[in-house]
Amino acid sequence: MIPKRLPRSHSAVQWLLAALVWGLTAQAGAGLFDDEEARRAILDLRQKVETLRKDTDQRISDESKRQVDEINGLRRNLLDLQSQLDANAAETAKLRGLNEQLARDLAQEQRRHSDAAKALDERLRNLEPVKVSFEGIEFSAEPAEKRSFEAALASFRKGDFDVAQRLFGDFLLRYAQSGYASASMFWLANAQFVGKDFKSSMAAFQKLLAQDPGYARAPEALLALANCQLELKDAKAARKTLEDLVATYPRSEAADAARDRLARLK
């Protein structure tokens, strides 16, 4: 009989050879070969079968080893690929974080530039001359110039005459050609008069009238000059000043006051 089952490691060729050996053995048993020839044939076939089996086992072993090596190689490749993917993911996350930081830095820098531009515009506006209308005349003045004059005048109006003298004096030194110059001289002279510095007040009024005879408050300046001369006991000069006031500005309120003074001086 042909064996029903062979070891799984045998190939179909091995199975056929085994079947052939079995058939030869059966033939020898049936008297088709001599015992000696049958024995040799059987041994030869067994040797061939064994050789084939070993060769087949070796091939199977080699193939298995090759497949194992391929699998291990694939596994290593997969591990390397996974490592690369992980590294790429980490690098991508790092780059994303850098991009976000750069975006925040850029937005912050843009805000700083915008704030700086606004501040610069504001400073430039503070430096640009502005149109001013004061005591019937129009002129251009720097913002700082305008603020300085207004601060000095505010001090005078509050009764801080010493401060007003200092501020008007500083203003005239700094802005001698200002459109506020005549007004500053006028109020400086008034502050000095209130402070009983009659000589300085008289000199300031005289300088004002000499430099700007068309000044809007010239009648008031002449009347104040006469008052300074009276305080200094110079009635003759005061009378002359009052007469000039009446003659030059006859319809002014200061001229009316001058007429009263002249009547009392007689």
Written account of the structure:
It is a single chain. The chain has 266 residues and is mainly alpha-helical. The chain has helices spanning 12-29, 35-127, 143-158, 161-174, 181-194, 198-211, 218-231, 235-248, 253-265, and strands at residues 130-134, 137-141. Strands 1-2 form a two-stranded antiparallel sheet. β1 and β2 (137-141) form a beta hairpin. Mean pLDDT is 85; it is low at 1-10.
What would you say about this model in short?
The protein has 266 residues and is mainly alpha-helical. It folds into two domains: 12-93; 130-265, Tetratricopeptide repeat domain (Serine Threonine Protein Phosphatase 5, Tetratricopeptide repeat, Alpha Horseshoe). The chain contains nine helices and two strands, in the order ααββααααααα.
Hey, roughly how much beta strand do the residues contain?
under 5%
The radius of gyration computed from the alpha-carbon positions, rounded to a whole number of angstroms, is: 62 Å
CATH superfamily of the largest domain, please?
Answer: Tetratricopeptide repeat domain
CATH architecture of the largest domain: Alpha Horseshoe
Mean residue pLDDT: 85
Quaternary assembly: single chain
Classify the fold: give the CATH topology of the largest domain.
Serine Threonine Protein Phosphatase 5, Tetratricopeptide repeat
**What ranges have pLDDT less than 50 throughout 5 or more consecutive residues?**
1-10
What's the CATH class of the largest domain, please?
A: Mainly Alpha
Envelope shape: rod-shaped
Helical/strand content category: mainly alpha
Largest sheet: 2 strands, antiparallel
Number of helices: 9
Overall number of strands: 2
